[in-house]
Amino acid sequence: MKIAHDDLNRLKSDADTEYLRYSKMDLRIDMARGIPSPQQIDLSMALLDVPLGNDYLSEDGTDSRNYGGQQGLLEARRLFSTLVGVPEDQIVVGGNSSLALMYECLAQAWRYGTPDSPRAWSQEPGGISFICVVPGYDRHFAMCEDFGIRMISVPMLDDGPDMELVKRLVVSDSSIKGIWCVPKYSNPTSTTYSKAVVETLASMPAAARDFRIFWDNAYVVHPLVEVDDSLENIYTQAVRHGHSNRPLIFASTSKMTLPGAGIAELAGSKDNTAWWLKAAALRSVGPDKVNQLRQVRFLRSPEKIKELMEQHRQLLLPKFERVHEVFNRRLGTFGVAQWTRPRGGYFVSLEVLPGTAKRVVELAAQAGVKFATPGSCFPYGIDERDYQLRIAPSYPDILQLTTALEVISVCVAKAAFDHLSAVASVE
Amino acid sequence: MKIAHDDLNRLKSDADTEYLRYSKMDLRIDMARGIPSPQQIDLSMALLDVPLGNDYLSEDGTDSRNYGGQQGLLEARRLFSTLVGVPEDQIVVGGNSSLALMYECLAQAWRYGTPDSPRAWSQEPGGISFICVVPGYDRHFAMCEDFGIRMISVPMLDDGPDMELVKRLVVSDSSIKGIWCVPKYSNPTSTTYSKAVVETLASMPAAARDFRIFWDNAYVVHPLVEVDDSLENIYTQAVRHGHSNRPLIFASTSKMTLPGAGIAELAGSKDNTAWWLKAAALRSVGPDKVNQLRQVRFLRSPEKIKELMEQHRQLLLPKFERVHEVFNRRLGTFGVAQWTRPRGGYFVSLEVLPGTAKRVVELAAQAGVKFATPGSCFPYGIDERDYQLRIAPSYPDILQLTTALEVISVCVAKAAFDHLSAVASVE
């Protein structure tokens, strides 16, 4: 991009004026994380009051109120089975957080190894590594960092991770024990992995025989477009290619019903679920099965879930459209930024002029808009090109969102013009 | 004990006949664990249907339905504060299992150390040790075993652990990093620690500066007698003696409301709760706050909890009385067994003729009564004298319980007489 010197001065001055104007508005907007709005949560209010007083037994006669039932209620496993395409007896349904299930799998492999591991992951001489698709989900990367697992970045392409690179790494480096994937409407790029990518992940040779795919299917039924993307079944593919233990599949109802009071699942091979259950017995008296009953009786069937998710979509779509509308109006002509137009999920990935992402966040924060953590979508929080930012438009109402987007746009422009003008003055 | 030869033969023959009679009844009774009965759970049926639809906000305005709030809702922390005597801002309220909180504390100390640790517990040269009061709670010991923590047994006396031994061990052995305590109506002996014991635990010098008391106050409001035992406040004592970080205090509502759907807490110093919260952020999006609201609105106040627990007591007491009544009638005169008469909690500790506990369990199982795991109250599951068994009378109805107790008594007698007769024949 090349802007003439005079134009640049004018643009810079305009941006300064605009920024000053917003700075004086005493804004206080926090939209840093992908949180459903109160209006979305209201869609599930009936769940709060599902009457259970006379009917607390599971289909198989289990008293949902008492201890036990580590694997989760039959009907909860069946409902997830329809969502993730794994038989119900190979599904574990836990508490309110799929993140907790992921952590437990990682911690368990760390201390004991997986069913296929020659030793505990913590005992591997030279340490272990994970492939991290970038930009990706900060909480995945934070776990790796915490365990001291080396992170190897692989770029996200239009149809999923760069599989040529993934294949090359995984076949040659036996320290690579896993890959983090958000395979549908990925966080933050909203990429859905193509059938070819899923098949390659399931079939590719791996130097580590205990290689695991952490398949965080967080947005399994969360389209923003009318026709939901279809995602190839990783488990079926893994079985077909003789790697049935490879995928660990996670999902939850947190972004269907109540974010803080949903239920989460882990699905995979019989070996993997038995492995998880064995360790779970040590630390728990079983999940909250009453809430499982409540969730299942509210969500009922895949069809009902689809109806509910359509209502979510109607609430989310205008916000995502507003992101594009404001960015396009404010930034479309300068070429100093580009952004994704998500087909689903909770995020827009915004790419600003390299070298300015941190500055953009700083400027916005000074103007009262907290919207992103620079580098958060990269391992160790380091965005080397300082260019990527994650936008989470779900929580604020549309007016507040619009204001925030205007501010962000001004900051993107101001940071870019300041940067270009500094470069120009050096030249 | 000495029984004349002829008497022994007659007793042995009577026991054989009785045992045969019960064996033919095709019984199938499982009373192996301390599980509340359906009638007890029914006391909290109103909790299942606490209406929240129009009132899901916490006192401080937190939307209980959404993400976040890792420390738990204010009102839930306050309610626990009244039970465990620690300020509400030094309490964390989590999900449905205090066991999970204990595990997390142990796992966290293992990986990072405590706020006072020179290094992670896993990195201590020579490994670490815990004091285990015996007989004690199998799940505590199982965790130690799993982490490879050495267990040092200390006998339970009438007023708590043998503190002379505890003091001597803790001051001299810096590998001892913790002690497991169920300080009130202890599992399985129903011992409540005396004021002197609690004060000594709080004040004694420890070679390890990061020594921790895992204070599992599982039966904090669970008396079987009319006047609840009073337990000295370990936290206050620890503060007074300059060891505020020493106790980690656990409790839950699982045996007040719904066993599988209660809420649990961790209380302690600010350092300890901050330490726990820091690691929790990595693995969780926060606890189920909706259930916290439900629990608090149902339990309401310490007075209401007391009323509820009195109703539990009325259901439990006849069962515990039945244990004594049957054992006394069946075993009282022979001197081959003794048993506790609990003032609270969920268990009776039965001591049979040394060398026969395993045989008793085996005989009972063959007659269709599963009631204990020999050795389960000892580290590594090893009861060297083969004499102690745990009775959990809460779950079966009184008729089933009575039958089970008759069977157990017959098995205790039969095993004893068989044993004595074998010994006599050797002599």
Automatic annotation (TrEMBL), chains A, B:
<keyword id="KW-0238">DNA-binding</keyword>
<dbReference type="GO" id="GO:0004069">
    <property type="term" value="F:L-aspartate:2-oxoglutarate aminotransferase activity"/>
</dbReference>
<dbReference type="InterPro" id="IPR015424">
    <property type="entry name" value="PyrdxlP-dep_Trfase"/>
</dbReference>
<dbReference type="InterPro" id="IPR015421">
    <property type="entry name" value="PyrdxlP-dep_Trfase_major"/>
</dbReference>
<dbReference type="InterPro" id="IPR024551">
    <property type="entry name" value="AspAT_Ic"/>
</dbReference>
<protein>
    <submittedName>
        <fullName>DNA-binding transcriptional regulator, MocR family, contains an aminotransferase domain</fullName>
    </submittedName>
</protein>
<keyword id="KW-0808">Transferase</keyword>
<dbReference type="InterPro" id="IPR015422">
    <property type="entry name" value="PyrdxlP-dep_Trfase_small"/>
</dbReference>
<dbReference type="Pfam" id="PF12897">
    <property type="entry name" value="Asp_aminotransf"/>
</dbReference>
<dbReference type="GO" id="GO:0003677">
    <property type="term" value="F:DNA binding"/>
</dbReference>
<keyword id="KW-0032">Aminotransferase</keyword>
